[in-house]
Each structure stands twice: as C-alpha cells, then as structure tokens.
Amino acid sequence: MENTASIHVQNLVKKYDDFTAVSDISLTVSAGETLALLGHNGAGKSSLIKMLLGIVKPTSGQISMMGNMVTHEKDRRQVNLGYLPENISLYEKLTGKEVLNYFAALKRIDKAKVSTVLTEFGLEYAQDNPVKSYSKGMKQRLGFAQAILSSPDILLLDEPTVGLDPQASLFMYQKIAELKQQGCAIIVCTHELAVVEDNIDRAFIMADGQHLASGSLSQLRQSTDLKVNISGTEVSRIIAEDPFLNALSIQDKLIISQQDKPKIMKYLTTHCGVYNFLIEEPDLSDIYHHCMNNRQQYAA
Predict the structure, then answer these.
(1) What letter does residue 5 receive in the DSSP assignment?
(2) Beta strands in the chain (DSSP E)
(3) Sheet containing 7-16: order of strands
(4) CATH 2.40.30.170 matches 7-221
C-alpha cells in the first residue's frame, strides 16, 4: 500500500563506528500535522533531523517525503522543504532584505514574496539595516522567514523559540499554526515543553537514540498511566464522608489512574451529587520526565 504521509521514516539507523546515534526509529507526520521531537541532548534528535535534510546518510532504513523515497540528493531537491536550525548563522553584513533576496534566488522564488514576508514578520522597518544590528528575536524571525519563504510542504524547526521572550514565542507558534492550516507537515525539536504543549498534535520522545513513547497528549497520558488529581471544596467534603473515596485520597485530593477516571467521575456525579470539581491531568513535562526516569522500561 502506498504511503501518503508527508514524512515517513521506517526503521532508521545511524551508526558512527561502534556508537549508535539513532536506533531503529520509525515515525510519520501527515500534512497539516505538527510533531514535537523531544529528548535530552544526545538523544539522537539532531542526527534524525540531519538525515531528513540529507546532510547525513542513514546506515540503514528508509525515508520518504511527499510519498516518494528520498535516497539521493536529487530526490530531496524535488521536496519543498523549509528548515530553521537552532543556531542560525546569517550574513551579518547584509541587510535583512538582502538575506531574504539571496534565499529567494536560491529557491527560485519571486522576490516580490520577500517584501510580503518582511511585513508579515514585522521586519519591514529594519529591512535595510545590516543583520549584525538585529536583536536575537529579530534574527530568529528572519531565520524563520527564510524557512517559510517557499511556502514549504515540510518544515523542520530546531529550537525555534530558544532565547525568545513570551511575545516572540507566541508569534512563532501563531505562524506555525497558519502553516499547519495550509497543510504543512511540521517537526519541532524543543526543550520548551510548556510552550510547545498547546501547539502540537503529537509528541515523539527519544533517549539514547531510541524511541520511548509517542502519540497525542491524551494517548501519552493513557500509555504512561500517570495519576490524575481531582480536587475542590465539595470533593474535600465528600472524601471525609465516603470511605471508598477516602481510600483514594491524599490531602483532600483524589489521586486516580487514567483508566479509573471515567468511573470515579461518574461516581462523584451520580452517587455523590458532586458536579463542581477540578481535574488536574499530567502535562507534557510530567510525561516527558516520567519517560526519561523510566527509560529502560519504555525503550525495551
């Protein structure tokens, strides 16, 4: 059956002599989907991204983009792909407009698009200033602008918001959301879990070159079975009165498994008449650290 995912990685391995940087990784990213690629430094994320870009050749495994195998550089040139590295190196003596004109020429894009993108990214006022005069946030926006200049089908972002203030980070993820709506398949490598959590469809967690866990936030909560907290004034009262709930509580909070959550919520509403309560689910950071602390279990 033909694979129609924008990005399809199958059994990818990268070895450097006796060191395995990426070990049997398989993943897919569909059009209009954002995947967070998570892991500690040395987890294999950068090696995976470099293989997707064609900078590094896999030891074994397959990569396809837009339904076609990308075995050789000529195959990858057929893919409309954008990339923002973590530490982007721009031409400091050129102006912002000259930098984008250069990339437009490389990508065979009409230079009229440059003016549109400069305005869109709030850089029009500084377009004739040398890049060396730009702030960190401005350089990051300029780097992001070159990555999306071609309206890519696939976008790879390595720490796109590192060092940015909250407003600049919000701007970046708003642009990512717009690209997603246009059908772009996006991979974001980041350590900023709290920022990325509300801006992705799925996460893919790696450690030591291996896959630990992947899925939507809901799926990851189910697979890790981290506890759910249910609290509130009425909950505290009923815990003191109900032996069944009291046995599930710690410090006036119900601490329950993901599997038991529907049953307990039904018990609270139908049996106890309690409808006003707060549910605290584990967030992406909780899931990530749980996987890291139990990596032997998840990598097995």
Answers:
(1) -
(2) 7-16, 19-29, 34-38, 60-65, 68-69, 81-84, 154-158, 185-189, 202-207, 210-215, 228-231, 249-250, 253-256, 278-280
(3) 19-29, 7-16, 60-65, 68-69
(4) no
pTM summary value:
0.90
Domain boundaries, given as residue ranges, for the chain: 7-221, 227-281
232-270: per-residue pLDDT in tens? 999 999 999 999 999 999 999 999 998 999 999 999 999
d(CA 291, CA 223): 10
Our CA angle for 189, 190, 196, nearest 5°, is 110
d(CA 249, CA 98): 62
Pairing of strands 34-38, 185-189: parallel
Half-sphere exposure of 157 (CA within 13 A, CB side): 32
Strands 34-38 vs 81-84: parallel, antiparallel or unpaired = unpaired
Cα–Cα nearest to 200, from 173, 229, 170 = 173
Residue 289: how many CB atoms within 10 A of its CB?
Answer: 13
CA 217 to each of CA 17, 101, 238, 270: distance values in angstroms, whole numbers, following the listed order: 36, 40, 30, 28
Distance CA 88, CA 245 (A): 54
Residue-wise over 202-215: b if at least 16 C-beta within 10 A, else e? bbbbbbebbbbbbb
Going edge to edge, which strands form the sheet with 253-256? 249-250, 253-256, 228-231, 278-280
Q: Which residue has the tokens 């003596």?
A: 93
Residue 228 reports pLDDT greater than 70 = yes
**Do residues 213 and 292 touch, judged by C-beta distance below 8 A?**
no
Structure tokens at 65: 């983009």
What letter would DSSP give residue 293?
H
